Amino acid sequence: MFDYDAIIVGGGPAGLTASMYLARASYRVLLLDKESFGGQLKNVYLIENYPGFSEGISGPKLASEMVNQAGKFGVELEIKEVVGVEPYSSCTLVNCADGKGYTCGAVVIAGGARPRRLGVPGEERLQGRGIVHCALCDGGRFTDCVVAVCGGGDSGVSEALYMRNIASRVILLEAEPGLTATAILRERVRHDSKLEVRCGKKVVEILGGDNVTGIEVIEAASGQREMIKVDGVIVHVGIEPNTDYLEDVISLDDQKRIIVDDRLVTQIASITAAGDIRKGSPWQIGAAVGDGVMAALSAQRFLNGSNK
Ligand SMILES: Cc1cc2nc3c(=O)[nH]c(=O)nc-3n(C[C@H](O)[C@H](O)[C@H](O)COP(=O)(O)OP(=O)(O)OC[C@H]3O[C@@H](n4cnc5c(N)ncnc54)[C@H](O)[C@@H]3O)c2cc1C
Fold first, then answer.
1. CATH fold match for the domains 4-114+239-303 and 131-235
2. pLDDT tens-digit profile of 62-111?
3. Domain ranges across the chain
């Protein structure tokens, strides 16, 4: 007898959905998260593109509804970091950082992703000293200050739009020649006099002693360098999947994302992957939720001994 029928690693929207589906189907489910439940949702001020909320919904509110729903159907939720997954012919062992291990029939890996670093001098040293990755969590410290937001994709532009109500000046930097965010966000930025958009400019160093005091940028076209005084830097230049402990367990692609088939099953039949962590994910909440459903159905199929 296993400790659980299914263990879900990661309590973001993908993991919360998978766990809710499996528990509602009467499986014994353990959901593990290393930090807190909700994943990246906790960092999103307003979600406008998740169906069913015409006025949008705050990320923390949506996360708390998902957690309540999972709990209602009997999912056991525990804060623990998973550090190893060992598949055997009859069961899978999930090992946690506190030394505990749990056996189960099926595993859903839904560990999401973490923000990618810029990889420039000053970045490591000034982490948390003016460099942050979440405007909703940490933006308040830049009230009436000058802030640079690095990254012109959806999350970077959303963060810049959030910060424009807090900071005295927001500079949005994108290394590519244009913003890559969806049209509606690009349009909002274009009409916002408080936001200064600088495309084709790459941050090459973050400056400061105890705290951030500025950034050095280089213009791609001319190679010209410029020092800009800022009090804070918010970095949103992509994400990296949380797959460090899986490298010898399942196949990952060259960007360390989990390779799955069209039912989100990895090369090990008892292990599925869902959400931002898998190859091909569009990094969206709706997609993570859809993945959670698909991964749960595949896990059920495996637990029932059916490959149909
Ligand atoms: C600022 C910002 C704004 C965004 N805005 C939008 C938006 O408006 N619309 C939209 O659709 N998407 C948006 N997104 C993207 C969206 O939040 C993600 O696509 C979505 O949260 C991915 O869900 P997930 O469940 O795959 O992973 P995550 O939300 O990343 O959750 C993964 C969870 O797994 C946990 N975990 C990781 N490794 C381990 C481990 N070893 N052991 C235990 N737990 C582990 C993490 O702590 C985390 O809680 C935004 C993202 C950000 C950062």
1. yes
2. 999 999 999 999 999 999 999 999 999 999 999 999 999 999 999 999 99
3. 4-114+239-303, 131-235
Nearest to 281 by CA among 66, 110, 56, 47: 110
Name the residues annotated as catalytic. Answer: 134, 137-138
214 - beta bridge partners?
207, 229
Q: Which ligand 1 atom sits nearest the alpha carbon of residue 13?
A: 25
Q: Is the beta carbon of 44 within 6 A of some atom in ligand 1?
A: yes
Task: Give 4 Cα–ligand 1 centroid separation in angstroms.
Answer: 24
Query: Hey, which of 40, 96, 284 would you mutate to test ligand 1's pocket, going by the most ligand atoms within 8 Å of its Cβ?
Result: 40
Query: Taking the domain 4-114+239-303, which CATH number applies?
Result: 3.50.50.60
Q: pTM, whole model, 2 decimals?
A: 0.90
Closest atom, ligand 1, to C-alpha of 83: 41
Asked if 303 and 21 touch (Cβ cutoff 8 Å), the reply is no
The amino acid occupying position 176 is: E
Mutation pick for ligand 1 pocket among 19, 20, 31, 44 (CB with most ligand atoms within 8 Å): 44
Three-state secondary-structure class, residue 23: helix
3-class state of residue 259 by DSSP: coil
Residue-wise pLDDT for 5-57, tens only, equals: 999 999 999 999 999 999 999 999 999 999 999 999 998 889 999 999 999 99
Q: Which tokens belong to 225?
A: 């360098």
Measured CA to CA, the distance from residue 127 to residue 208 in angstroms comes to: 11
What CATH number does the domain located at 131-235 have?
3.50.50.60
